Task: structure prediction
Amino acid sequence: MALRFGKKKYSSVQVRKRDVPDGLWEKCPGCGEILYAKQLEESLQVCSKCTHHFTLGRQKRIEMFADEGSFVEWDAELTSADPLGFTGKDSYIAKLEANQKKTGFKDAVTCGAAKLSGRDIGLGVMDFSFLGASMGSVVGEKITRLIERCTAEKRPCILVCASGGARMYEGLYSLMQMAKTSAALARHAKAGLPYIPVLTNPTMAGVMASFATLGDVIIAEPGALIGFAGPRVIKETTQQDLPEGFQRAEFLEKHGLIDMVIPRSQLKERVALILDYMAGA
Result:
């Protein structure tokens, strides 16, 4: 049946839209393209149109760098305590439990032994989905143990960095991790062993100001946000207008803070090549 008003016809029949499963499509924040989730997964979460690099989960990162079946996790049992008894809208313990349930991991970094193109390495991967990959005492301890074990076993160390900064729920305990990880890296360098950080989006604040930028070769993914403070804070502090994109990987490469910007699909191959070069192969 149709209702007629003037020259237009308006149907009274309601057409039911087909149900579309959630998670089938993703909208690219870089170009606005609607991407098929399956194809996006196959391309390592990189937009096929504008090459925007989406966040990649820690398990996929491990699979991307480690030869198949070679990764063995270290210090998986470490979990954060609540040294300050922090309470706010939610307690720190409640936030930890919620993030552990959400991610299936005990904290924001996974470390272990692996092979990269047949070479023994130590591998650490930070996960922004766990409390913004904030650097608490467990994150600092696991990364320090990773570096120290790599030094003892004469392994190169690869660390995939992502973080919003220090973990405010642990106060000074979190800030201490900057010095602890940096000291471990100094001993690793003294032993003549390679350390390569891979900076992903975002790598900020205390992580950027410590182990993320102490590498022999510092690599970043395209478009990664890298810096100490946010642009608003910097502008208010310096009272100056800031260059466009001054905290993005490409700008920082151009000005010498990082050494290479490498697309995700080429990372494993390029890191293996760098390690071969550093070993004199």
The chain has a mean pLDDT of 86.
